[in-house]
Structure prediction request, 400 residues.
Amino acid sequence: MTRGTVRWRLTIVYSGLFLLSGAALLVITYLLVAGGFPVIRLQDAPDGDGIVRLCAQPDGSVATDRDFTACAEKARALMTTQQAETVRRLVLRSGGALAIMTVVSVGSGWIMAGRVLRPLRTITAAARDISAGDLHQRLAMTGRQDEMRELGDTFDGLLARLEAAFDAQRQFVANASHELRTPLARQRTVLEVALADPAPTLTGLQTVCRRVLAAGEQQERLIEALLTLARSERGLDRREPVDLQAITSSVVEARLAEAQARSVIVTTDLMRAPVLGDARLAERMMANLVDNAIRHNIPGGTVTIATGSSTATVTNTGPVIPADELDQLFQPFTRLIGERVAAPDGLGLGLPIVAAIVAAHEGHLDARPLPTGGLTVTVRLSADAVVAAPSQVAPASRTS
Prediction:
């Protein structure tokens, strides 16, 4: 009661409004009653009027002249006194009734405030009891669709999103642990076999070292990808002008040898695409898109890369991707079970990192499977306010 709870504040508001309304009603009633008594002038008093009857003599005759005037003044004074007494009693009794009803309104306001705030107490108790281990609980409030019901539904929606986020985090940690455990187990096995060899040779030891280094490189790439994903999901600390044309051109140049080794034809149509964002994340985004297009392709396939108007589009041929399984490509460590399989050097983090980087830039990502096989991914980031002059925007097309 001393904490100034919402229930008490509502009670005071209800009671205060009742008191003000009652006081206003009392004032209006007083003014109406005080000004409502008729004033009777002697010259207007008709026969049979109360003043005439009041001034009648014992023998039945009516007082006249001076006696009647004195009697009438006495009657008027009596009526004035009666009027004042009536108004006084009205004020006293109405004030007493108002005081009693004010006390009653406090109790009624306390009860009504409790009824109004009952759903809020339910939400508060649920929020206090729910922990990370039982986010599946829901309020499931019933009743009329009012503000409290809407608040309860909003709270249920928040719990659902938190549960999904916690489940995704647990799944991500489990998948990351599994992915890291595989190269560690491979290293351990290789080293145990080498140590168990009673007559090791220099060539054998060199082979073991190369395998251990390869497993270590895989771990490094996985850890780097995880750090990039975590950094992308955290958001951007600052934004700077970035040109997707220059970044994409550098990324493609570094991957032409791999594309030729996989018999994949890379075609580019690069134009100025000034955006605001993080240069390193934008480079990682384009690198993952190009790597995904090259590695998840078919021999003799093609990759088409285009930039312009703050967008970048990467289209590649490849196996047919079912439309209902497209979202799985953007889930960490998720690989499709159908024809599209992960590349031997893939980590299952390429497209999830792309999605996280686009979300960190508050951009838009659109992925569409092609009917003949393959995928088209288009990303659009926030455009840079400083746009280059038309003479500086020159296309750069190349086929390799």
Observations:
- The longest helix spans residues 65-129.
- The chain has three domains: 6-129, 147-233, 239-399.
